[in-house]
Write a structure and sequence with these properties.
By secondary structure, the protein is mainly β. 11% of the residues lie in helices and 37% in strands. Bound molecules: heme D.
């Protein structure tokens, strides 16, 4: 038998684990395990695994261990631990768990909590607000959600959310129920009539995002740890099916995101590690003859897709990859690439929007790496304008009734500024600085497009409300690091100016 130098490579993770100073694991067991789970999977506190800590620097983690986290139960340990001990704890929580954590169907079942049974919910709203003009505003600062009335421009309710909600909040087609996903894998269902959480379930250790089928019957969560797609019954979040993200060749991948494609009666999932897009048809009714339900249709693409959006008809998917120089347009009906598009840097397509322009329709995307908004003609797929901005940006928004598109420069030194682009001239019309020195990002419009709501993305932040026509500030409401905000009507009607 030949011996290769790699023969013992499987021992490496085990050796790595052994190399942890016993002290770090002891410290974790004594001080952290009770709230963060003995296997770091998260319990009352968030999961402490590399996948869940990706956006958090080691320096920031050391600070939290030393001084605690305000407005949470996380205490500071600087009086109990030396700097070296804090550092070894940090290294420990940023190390992969061996073996990798699992989260199987039994764990999903066991985690489900029914807060309020459906037959106890009221038939009419218990408040006077128009459901269609409500917003859910995620406050990342202290992990809360504010329900905001877009007519009165006032919050009507505020409740604690799971740790680190991410991705857009989605609504049932009638707008009554909101579905949210936390990075830690919790899916929550909230009733906008009674202002009550109805059910929650943990579908994974790490989740990307969630989508609700066009008929409102199913919720699909895309997860990176483990790599699964979990389909839930939208009425009570009970488990319907788990699909491992493994292709026909046995290769596994992280989903980059899932979206519902209501006109197609399907979900669309893009994958980060395999050059494939998956379409999962939603069974049309209880007696569907489709067998087995939720079977995957695979579409091969040129390069893996990290970020994507659709045309308004959901016949085309426009995607970009961090590794490929060009974007690709996929014809979803034919199941193949139909065009390349020149979008430089790292376009943030899931924040891209579309609008009619002259005799065509354009899509515009901010860019996470470059200071520009790229505008592409959706008929010829040519880039027709590159609008220079003060720096890289994250979110772009408009509304059918607004002549403007708003874009932030979130990832730049000028992150306190927001550009307002004229959709007819493709020029910057005005640059606003809502709170000098503080990050301004993410805009959403009221149902009628009359007001634009912007986040001051800071712990002592605010929701700033602008008259969307005059661009004058109307009101400012203090909030704790408000991030995304989601208007019920714009979402369920799939406004071209917002994310779907
Ligand atoms: Fe997001 C939406 C991916 C980092 C805040 N983000 C999305 C969506 C995707 C995505 C695919 C659309 C899902 C949906 O709507 O259901 N985000 C990614 C990344 O790949 C990235 C760059 C790295 C990562 O950590 O996953 C990333 N995102 C961030 C952040 O660091 C942000 C600024 C703060 C946070 O909450 O973590 C952030 N992402 C958001 C928000 C949305 C979002 C607020 C919803 C935007 C909307 O209006 O729909």
């Amino acid at each position: 038998m030949t011996t290769t130098p790699y023969r013992w490579i499987w021992l490496l993770p085990v050796m790595l684990l052994w190399s942890w100073p016993a002290h770090a694991t002891d410290l974790y067991r004594q001080l952290c395990a009770q709230c963060h789970h003995p296997d770091r999977l998260g319990a009352m506190g968030p999961a402490l695994l590399p996948e869940n800590l990706e956006r958090f620097s080691k320096k920031a983690a050391a600070e939290v261990i030393a001084t605690g986290r305000p407005a949470t139960q996380m205490p500071g340990f600087s009086d109990k631990l030396t700097e070296d001990e804090i550092q070894s704890l940090v290294n420990f929580i940023y190390s992969p768990r061996v073996p990798a954590p699992t989260w199987d169907e039994a764990a999903i079942h066991d985690s489900r909590i029914v807060h309020r049974a459906n037959d106890t919910l009221p038939e009419k709203p218990v408040h006077k607000s128009d459901i269609m003009n409500l917003f859910m505003v995620v406050e990342l600062g202290d992990h809360h959600v504010t329900v905001f009335d877009g007519d009165r421009l006032e919050p009507i309710y505020r409740f604690p959310s799971r740790f680190a909600l991410h991705g857009g909040i989605k609504y049932s087609p009638d707008g009554r129920f909101a579905y949210m996903a936390s990075r830690d894998g919790w899916i929550s269902r909230f009733d906008l009539y009674s202002l009550n959480m109805t059910a929650e379930v943990r579908v994974a250790v790490n989740t990307r995002n969630v989508a609700v089928s066009g008929d409102g019957r199913y919720v699909l969560a895309a997860n990176t740890l483990p790599r699964t797609l979990v389909i839930l019954d939208a009425t009570d979040l009970s488990l319907v099916k788990t699909i491992p993200v493994v292709n026909a060749k046995g290769e596994s991948a992280r989903p980059s995101a899932v979206y519902a494609a209501p006109p197609r009666h399907s979900f669309i999932v893009a994958l980060k590690d395999i050059a494939e897009v998956w379409e999962i048809p939603v069974p049309q009714d209880e007696k569907s003859t489709e067998d087995p339900p939720f079977s995957v249709r695979t579409i091969a693409v040129d390069a893996v897709l990290d970020d994507f959006l659709f045309n308004q008809e959901y016949t085309q998917l426009i995607g970009a990859s961090r590794s490929a120089p060009a974007g690709q347009v996929i014809d979803l009906n034919a199941g193949r690439k139909m065009a390349d598009i020149a979008i430089p840097g790292m376009p943030h397509l899931s924040s891209g929007i579309t609008w009619p322009y002259q005799d065509t329709v354009v899509m515009a995307t901010p860019n996470i790496k470059e200071g520009e908004v790229t505008v592409v003609d959706m008929q010829s797929w040519k880039t027709i304008k590159r609008i220079p901005t003060l720096g890289p940006g994250f979110f772009m928004r408009s509304h059918e009734n607004s002549p403007y598109a708003w874009v932030d420069v979130f990832s730049s030194a000028s992150k306190d500024s927001v550009h307002v682009i004229d959709k007819a001239t493709l020029e910057i019309h005005k640059t606003l600085q809502p709170a000098p020195g503080k990050t301004a990002a993410h805009v959403e419009f009221t149902k009628d497009g009359r007001y634009a709501l912007l986040s001051i993305w800071e712990m002592d932040g605010a929701l700033v409300i602008y008259d969307a026509k005059s661009l004058e500030e109307v009101k400012r409401i203090p909030m704790k690091k408000p991030s995304g905000k989601y208007n019920v009507s714009n979402k369920i009607n799939r406004s071209a100016g917002t994310s779907h």
